[in-house]
Structure formats: C-alpha cells, structure tokens
Amino acid sequence: MSEEGKEMVVMVTGGSGLVGNAIRIMVEKDQRPGEKWIFLSSKDANLMSMDETKAVFEKHHPTHVIHLAAMVGGLFRNMKYNCDFWRNNMQINTNVLEVSHQMGVKKVISCLSTCIFPDKTTYPIDETMVHNGPPHSSNYGYSMAKRMIDVMNRVYHEQYGCKFTSVIPTNIYGPYDNYNVEDGHVLTGLIHKVYLAKKNGTPFTVWGTGKPRRQFIYSLDLARLMIWVTREYEEISPIILSVDEEDEVSIKELAEMVVEEMDFKGEVTYDTSKADGQFKKTASNTKLRSYLPDFKFTPIRQGIKETVEWFTANYETARK
C-alpha cells in the first residue's frame, strides 16, 4: 500500500519482453496487498503516439510506472539504423515521461543500458560517469536516446518535483528473451546457435574473437531488484544493477558454458571478421551494495541452465 492508504498501481511498459516477463514472474511470487500490477505490450498502445500514450495512462491511472518499452536490437542492427533508434526511442521516452508528469504519477523507473556510458573511460564505470564523454559510435543513436532519459529525469525533478529515476542493468539474459542469432542479446543468441548447430550437425560459430568481457545479470535477479527500486529507492540519480565485478566473463567462457550445458560435441569456431564491439564495460555495483549488501545473485551456470531449459521447452513460440 502506498502513502495515503491508496492502492499502488504499477504500470509496466514493454511488459511482454524479457524484463517485463521476469517482473511479472517475481511479482506473482511476492504479491503485496494494496499493489496492482499492469503489464502493457505494444498491442495496448503505440507509445510513439502521444494520443495513445495518454489514452493508456487514462485507462489505468498508474501511481508508478516501470518504463521498459524501447526499440531495441543487437550490435549489427544498431549500426544500420542509428537514426531510427534515436528518433523512435526519444519519442517513446518523451511521451511516457510527459504524460507521467501530466497525470501526477508518483514515480517512474526507466530502464537504461550500460551502452550509455562513455566509450573512452576508466573502469569500473559508476553512476557519476554517464555524461563524461560520447558513447561508442556503433550504437550512439540508441545510447544517446537512453542517456537523455537521465537528463529528462533531472529536469523534470528540478522544474516540477517529479520523482523520475532510472536503473542501469548490465547484460541481461533469461527466459522470454529474443533468441535471434543476428539480432538478439549475446547469451541467448549463443544458446540458439548451439541449438541449431546440434540439430543440423554443423559447427557452432561465435561472432568475433570471444575476447570481450561482460557482466551478465539473470532477468529474474534484475526483476527482484527493479521491484525493490519501485518500492524503496528514492534517488533521482540512476543506480547500476549488476553482478559483482569479479563475476565478469569473456564471450569465449560464456560460449564454453553454453556448449557444456547443451552437451554440444561438435566443432566450435570463431568468425574474427565480425566486429567485437567494446572490449569491456566493467560496471561497479558499489551503490547497489550500499543499499543491499546481502543480495544474492543467481550463479551464471545456474542461470544458463534455466534459460536453456526454457528455450528448449518453448522453442516453437520463443522470439527468434
């Protein structure tokens, strides 16, 4: 129950994707009295339209919004459509935050990405470094649109007192992801590739050298943290939601774990003609740990096991 004894109505945009589904699963396990959760998909409203955005807010009257909706894609799609990523995401974010302000929403939590951080930086990156330089050139349209959410959160707070904040997860994986081998997230793309190589008796080809290093967060862990942010986190400035620095793994190590988990016995090759993207984006979770020192993350092998099981069981209907 929120303040003044009124019902807390949490509306999740982009509720049918990887993170939205994870939040739905975790809310069902920890449903609290006085809370109502609504999960929107693109079928409910086109958030690029101000009229449709207003209409869906007027229909549900949320007190809280978790804003996940975005135009997303992998490295190669980003490189091809930088302008579309910039324009469409700016439109969605502007509409959601402006309507939230107009409707008196108490709190908006937007989901950003570590790609918003400067390309040239010191590591580990933390929440204070977001605006210290331009992002990586490969996907700057998407990165800058996401980065602008932090600017909007600040100016809405300064001018109107709105409580708009954001979270910055590292690489997410889990059930309900987009398993597209060309366009999905790296880990789920690898799972699909191994699945196909196994089925077709072909080599499993990893794009790039396998050397880049990443921190991976299981979608259900991210969901638990985003629910906590919705209920408890009161700052406007972003908070990085990430596993610890020592849990960073290389793409090669990741591929080997997937091969092992899926019991793939075929040939593994690396297509070094494909771009690697940034070598690393090590993020510090010191701020998160100051709030939740005892939070336990799902070990990556366990998360991969559950993700592989979900993908195998739901192969026909999974996004790919």
Structural class: alpha/beta
Mean pLDDT rating: 92
Indicate the proportion of strand residues: 5-15%
CA-CA gap between termini = 39 Å
Report the principal-axis shape.
globular
* Helix content range: 40-55%
The order of strands across the largest sheet is 2-1-3-4-5-10
Using only C-alpha atoms, the radius of gyration works out to 19 Å
Low-confidence stretches: none
Largest sheet: 6 strands, parallel
| Beta-strand segment tally | 12
Give me the number of helical elements: 10
Order of helices and strands: EHEHEHHEHEEHEEEHEEHEHH
What would you note in describing this structure?
With about 325 residues, the protein is an alpha/beta fold. The chain is built from ten helices and twelve strands. The protein has a six-stranded parallel beta sheet, sandwiched between helices. Strand 4 (about 105-110), helix 5 (about 140-160) and strand 5 (about 165-170) form a beta-alpha-beta unit. The longest helix has 21 residues, at about 80-100. The radius of gyration is 19 Å and the shape is globular. Its EC number is 1.1.1.271.
